[in-house]
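Sequence, structure tokens reproduced for reference:
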Amino acid sequence: MIRKSPAVPKEAKKAKRSGVIAVAAPSFRRERALLKRGVWPVAGCDEAGRGPLAGPVVAAAVILDPKRVPKGIDDSKRLTRERREELFEEICATALVSVAIAPPSRIDRDNILRASLWALARAVHALPETPKHVFVDGRDRLATSCDCEAVIGGDGIVLSIAAASIVAKVSRDRLMCRLAQDHPGYGFEQHMGYGVPAHLEALDRLGPTIHHRRFFAPVAASRRKHFGEDDTPAAAQIEMIMSSEEAIAAI
């Protein structure tokens, strides 16, 4: 008996020929399944800014309105800056949204993972409505009063998490652009605090600001060069730390 090979969709054939791997967009399937069981509100949360040398970690939590889900929501990393800005406005206009910030001082004190989880939990607690279930991107569940489900790669799978990734990314980018005005020469408005060559060069030349994460290796090296072994910055480098409330108001 000769078995026929299963039919391959035309889109998959085209992707195979072009060498492009098709990536499915995140869906509302998990949220809708909970809604059918009477579990609602359901939130998604994600953060932006774990890897940079400067600036805060910004976390966002989003409860999408099932009847008004903006089209085109995706993992923020797959979207252009212009499209993220457009979707940010649509999400904020149709969904319940909250943002929380872990400043560099908390990152220095707690480490980047704990600071990120702290900010994510704060974002969930700050939502206008208390969710009954939370999806969070990553491996770690949050300290919340409701059920929390960690989803590895969740920003590319769960629509609510993807929406939160957009809100977190746009919020952080706007904040870094504001910090760039206060600290010209570092290029925060271009690299958003990440350790690109231009940022490393500025860090070596100008020394760290109060917004740099002092225990990240390049920052620690710059601190030793400019301030010696003393862990306290020179008086000219001391700046007022923006509170979470002030930072959110600036977004």
